[in-house]
DNA sequence: CGATTATTGGAGCAATTAATCTATTTTTTA
DNA sequence: TAAAAAATAGATTAATTGCTCCAATAATCG
C-alpha cells in the first residue's frame, strides 16, 4: 500500500520493518519529522541507513507509514472509550482519559496526529490527505458514540451529533496544543468541558 | 531586549533590522522555522548572512524576535475586534473575521502563533515561555471583552469570563489547525459556534 | 545442498545549513 | 572633513542531511 515493495519480505524482514516504524514513530513524536534523522534512528535503535531505505525507499514514504501507525494507535485508544458513550459520566471519563494522558506525558508532544499535521499539512499534500482521512475516522468514532446515545434515548433527538463531534475533535486539538504551550491541562480541560456542557443540554434525565 | 546589541543602530541599521524581521516572519509563517534558511532570506529579500548575524547573533534570537513580531501582529488585529464585544452580533463578527481570514489564506499556515508553538514548544524553552506569554495576552483580550459585556449588563453575572475566554482561545487554535488539515473552515466555524453558543446562554435580552 | 533472493553493515557522496571571517563601503560624529 | 563606528557583500567552513553503493551475511526454496 504505502511502502516500497521491491521484493518479498521474510519473517525477519517484516520484524525489522516494524521495528523501524515503531522507533521512527516515537522519534518523530518526540522531535518532529524534520528533527528525526537517519543518524537518530541509528543511535536510538541501531538501525542502519540501508535498512531504512531498503524498506521504505525514501523519508517521505517512511513518514506516510508513520502517519498510518499513529492513526491506528489513536483510534485503538479512543475507540473503546467512544463506543461506550452511554452517559454523561462516560463523557467525563473520556475527557479525563485525555487530560490524564497529557499529564502523564508531562505536557510534551501534543496530539500524535495533530503535531504531524501542523508540521506537514502545508508542504506535503499526500501527508495532509492521509491525516485528514485519519481525523475523519476519529471524528466518525465520536459521532457514532453520540448517535448511539441519541438512539438509546439518552440524548434528545434535536442534538446534532455531526456538529458536536466535529466541535469536540477540534476542541481536543486546540486543547492538546495549549497543553504543550502552557505546560498545564487547564485549557484542555476547559475547552472540553465547554463542548461537553453543550452536549449536556441535550441529555435526558 | 531580545536582540544582540553589540553596537548602536543607525537609521539605516534599524530599517534593515526591521526588514529582516518582516521577511523572516513571513517566511517562517509559510515554511516553518526549520524550513527557513539564510539562503531563503537571501533569495526572497536580498538579505546577506552577515546582515542576519550582525543584527540577531544567531537563529534562535531571530526566532525569538519573530515570535514578538507575530504576537504584536495578532494582538493588533484581534484587539479592536475584542474590545468592541458589545453584543451577540459582535461575537459573530469576530468569528467571521477569523473564518474569513483563513479562507483568504486559502487554508494555509494556521495561526501565526500556534504554528510556531507546535514547532518550538518542546525544544526551545525560551520560545515556549514567550509564546505562552503571548497567548496569555490574547486570552486576556478576549476576557476583557467579555467582562466589559458583563459590566454593561449584556451578559448575566453568572457568566464566567475566565473560563469562556480560555475555551474560546483554545477553540480558535484547534479550529485553525483543522483548517490547515481539512482545507475548509467548517471545523473552525463549528467549534467557534459551540463556544459562542455557550456565551449566548448568558446573554440578556 | 546449491542457487536465488532478502537482509544488513558501513563507507561515502552531493547538497544543504548555521555561522564566521575579511574586506569594503557607508554613515555618523567630533 | 577626518576619524571612528556601523553596515554590507560575499567567500568560506565545519557539520549535518538524505540517500546510495557495494560487499558480506542470512534466509528461503526447489
Report what the structure shows.
The structure is a homodimer. Chain A has about 200 residues and is an all-alpha fold. Chain A has a domain at about 65-200: Tetracycline Repressor, domain 2 (Orthogonal Bundle). Chain A contains nine helices and no strands. The longest helix of chain A is centred in the last third of the chain and has 27 residues, at about 125-150. Chain A is elongated, with a radius of gyration of 19 Å. At the A-B interface, helix 6, helix 7, helix 8 and helix 9 of A face helix 6, helix 7, helix 8 and helix 9 of B. Chain B binds a DNA duplex (30 and 30 nucleotides) through helix 1 and helix 3.
Entry summary:
2 copies of one chain form a homodimer. The first copy, chain A, has 9 helices and no strands. The first copy, chain A, has 205 residues and is mainly alpha-helical.
Shape annotation of chain A: elongated
Instruction: Output the CATH homologous superfamily of the domain at 64-200 in chain A.
Output: Tetracycline Repressor, domain 2
Biggest chain pair interface = A-B, 47 and 47 residues
Radius of gyration of chain A: 19 Å
Number of helices of chain A: 9
Run of helices and strands of chain A: HHHHHHHHH
Query: Roughly how much helix do the residues of chain A carry, as a percent range?
Result: over 70%
Q: State the major sheet of chain A.
A: none
**What is the name of the CATH class of the domain at 64-200 in chain A?**
Mainly Alpha
CATH fold call of the domain at 64-200 in chain A: Tetracycline Repressor, domain 2
Indicate the mean pLDDT of chain A.
94
Named CATH architecture of the domain at 64-200 in chain A: Orthogonal Bundle
- Structural class by helix and strand composition of chain A: mainly alpha
Gap between N and C termini of chain A: 48 Å
Find the count of extended strands of chain A (DSSP E, 2+ residues).
Answer: 0
